Every structure is written in structure tokens, then in C-alpha cells.
Amino acid sequence: MAPKVLLSALLLIAVASQALGAPCGTWDIVAEQSRTGRVVEGQPEYAVDVRNGCACAQSEVKIRCYGMKSYEPVDPRSIKSIDDENCILKNGAALTREAPVRFRYVWKTPQDFPVVSSVVQCGKR
């Protein structure tokens, strides 16, 4: 009987933590991009939306961007290069499910923006 009660309790905890949005991680952050149709200096412009699919906010989101190459300046409030490989989103401020980060850049081909790291903020306000 005790193993069934323990198993039921563990199952309930697992379901409850998923419902509350925990655990979360970098796998919940996704960058989607598309061509805007605008052309600058003969190169296409891309619009990027970075979304956090987790109910918990995530701050200090760093993505691989290799210096964020663009023929036009990119809004540093959205994405800023911090070294030769990585960029930080929103100057480290929290990325929530309700408010994706949006930016545009102009380059020959679309760039990949894999997430490198983040700090999960479940339960913090």
C-alpha cells in the first residue's frame, strides 16, 4: 500500500510542477525568423522573434550570434554583442512568455541564434 501512496504523491508533484511552469530552461527559448521583404544594399532584411515558451521568466538570456553581423545597426536594447561569439537579449532583463524580443538585421543569409544560457526565475517577482 505504501509504495502506491508514494507513487501517487510523486506523480501529483510532477504534474503540479509542470502545471506551474517548472522546470524550465534554455530549451524553452526559441528564435524564429523570416524575411521582411525589405532589401538594404542588395541584402535581405530578417525579422527575428525570440520567445520564451515557459511560464517562468528567464533573464540573462545569451544566444550565439558571432558578433551580430548586419549591414544596418541593430537595436542594442533588444540584442547586444558581448564578445566575438555571444549576444545578450534585453540587456539581461527578463524574457517572459507574454513579451518576446523582436529585432531586425540585414545580412546575406539568415543567421542561427542558438540559446547558450539563461537564468530561470520561477516564483521571483
TrEMBL record:
Residues 1-21 form the signal peptide. InterPro entries: TPD1 (IPR040361). GO terms for biological process: cell fate determination. Pfam families: TPD1_C. Keywords: Signal. This is Uncharacterized protein. It comes from Vanilla planifolia.
